[in-house]
Amino acid sequence: MIGATLSAGMFVSGAVFGAVACIAAPFHVDADAYRRDATFYACAVVGLWFVLLDGEVTRWEAAAMPAYYVAFVAIVLRGEDFKRDGGVRRRRPSLEEVERGRVGGGGGGGD
């Protein structure tokens, strides 16, 4: 089971990416996103190695795996929001600011 999971990840990042590059070349790859994804994958593999060192997977270790994925998805989505906003983190207005009408017309807040 573990071998199949790791092999699938290597296949997607190697063979599929390579095939797309050969067929659809040239195309743009977002270097930051690729680095982020490769780093998360490498950390997941190293983390899995540490989990499997003793030959047993505890409940905490098992719970950490989907939690790690949820953290990855949250970081990806947050990064997409950041890119969409032009690299500017916007502060959400407080309820008090909204009630007093101190919020700019853009809906992004921060006025």
UniProtKB/TrEMBL annotation:
Where's the Sodium/calcium exchanger membrane region domain?
2-77
> Where mainly found?
membrane
Q: Which GO terms describe its cellular component?
A: membrane
User: Under what name is this protein listed?
Assistant: Sodium/calcium exchanger membrane region domain-containing protein
Its subcellular locations are: Membrane
Q: Which keywords fit this entry according to its UniProt record?
A: Ion transport, Membrane, Sodium, Sodium transport, Transmembrane, Transmembrane helix, Transport
**Region Disordered: start and end of each range?**
85-111
What parts of the sequence cross the membrane? 6-27, 63-82
Q: Where is the composition biased (Basic and acidic residues)?
A: 85-102
The entry lists its GO molecular-function terms as: monoatomic cation transmembrane transporter activity
Report the superkingdom from the record: Eukaryota
Membrane topology note:
Multi-pass membrane protein
Which example biological process does GO assign this protein?
sodium ion transport
- Family in the record: Belongs to the Ca(2+):cation antiporter (CaCA) (TC 2.A.19) family. Cation/calcium exchanger (CCX) subfamily.
